[in-house]
Amino acid sequence: MKYALFILFLFVPWIVRSAESKGPGTDSDGVIVEPSGGEIAVGTVLTFTFPTAMIPPANIDVPNQPLPFAGEPAMEGEFLWKSQTEGSFTVKRLKAGATYHLTLAPGLSDLANQPVQPQDWSAEFTTPQFSVTTDFDVRDELSSQPQLPLESTYDVRLTDVAEHAYFQDRDSRQRYPVNVIQNQDDSFEATEFRVTPRDPLTVARTYDLIVDGL
After folding, report:
1. Which of 68, 72, 185, 210 is the most buried (most CB within 10 A)?
2. What span, in angstroms and rounded, lies between the C-alpha atoms of 2 and 94?
3. How does pLDDT run across 152-165, given as a tens digit for each residue?
4. What phi and psi, each to the nearest 5 degrees, are found at residue 164?
5. Which pTM value belongs to this model?
6. What is the 3 state secondary structure string of the chain?
7. pLDDT in tens, 7-39
8. What is the Cα–Cα distance from 110 to 87, expressed in whole angstroms?
9. Phi and psi angles of residue 168, each rounded to the nearest 5 degrees, phi first
10. Dihedral, CA of residue 151, residue 154, residue 158 and residue 162, to nearest 10
11. Domains of the chain in sequence order
């Protein structure tokens, strides 16, 4: 899916777009997840609490344990048991604009080999749409090589930004490639970065900054 961002500058206000999505969630008296629903992002920690012991004490804080839940679509992250009845899942990667439906892992049993109840437990989470925004203030004049700060809702490869972003003369439609400036050193992906035209732009013209297909 392609996304396009059009940003007007040089006497023209910026145009940016953003999207929000939210959805309901569920929990139960037997299995509890916090937060119980709504919107999540990379870095969100989901805390699961079970009514009975799920693991032996030796497995607490041991990585790569089987997930006690299943996601549709699958949710990428790291799960750690913090006690015999409580575990935390740190979200590492998500799809933009998606709805994640969680259920108990098929055949999930507790430490006593009893089925975890209720077996129809579920929870639902949503993720933000992909968007690129800017905090740039409108000015009467700009330099011929302005540095424009951009922020995306998800990590993007900076090489992809350089490939898919360009300035375009609003009248002639001529395109001008950009350089991407990292806000952090040695980072191949980022959510915050700056773009600047590789060559000086002709003054007294109106340009669009276009990010297309990112």
Report:
1. 68
2. 17
3. 999 899 999 999 99
4. -105, -5
5. 0.70
6. CCCEEEEEECCCCCCCCCCCCCCCCCCCCCCEEECCCEECCCCCEEEEECCCCCCCHHHCCCCCCCCCEEEECCCEEEEEECCCCEEEEEEEECCCCCEEEEEECCCCECCCCCECCCCCCEEEEECCCCCEECCCCCCCCCCCCCCEEEEEEEEEEHHHHHHHEEEEECCCCCEEEEEEEECCCCCCEEEEEEEEECCCCCCCCCEEEEEECC
7. 444 333 332 333 333 333 334 458 999 999 999
8. 13
9. -135, 125
10. -70
11. 4-19+131-212 (2.60.40), 32-126 (2.60.40.3710)
Amino acid identity of 189? E
Tokens representing 59?
């497995």
- Both structure tokens of 62: 């041991």
Q: How far is CA 118 from the centre of its chain?
A: 31
